[in-house]
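SEQUENCE-TO-STRUCTURE ENTRY
===========================
Question of interest: how does this chain fold, as expressed in backbone structure tokens?
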Amino acid sequence: MADDYKLFLETKDLYLEQTDSSYKEAYRNIKNNNDIAKVVHPEAGTLLHFACKYNLSDHVKLLVSLGSDVNAQGGRLNN
């Protein structure tokens, strides 16, 4: 679980870079480690939050298919 959490944070940071290459790497991280789709960070939320924020529909579809909680609350707005 600690490894999932660490990879979650690395993937979150890739989303924050907002480049095509970082989005591709984030997608690979998720595809290669399905468990990070289910991580809910109390301050950052979920990877699904970031995929939605940056309008990455292919990421959203992947995350939902891997069991990301569409009702999860988290992040600084707790939404």
The chain has a mean pLDDT of 90.
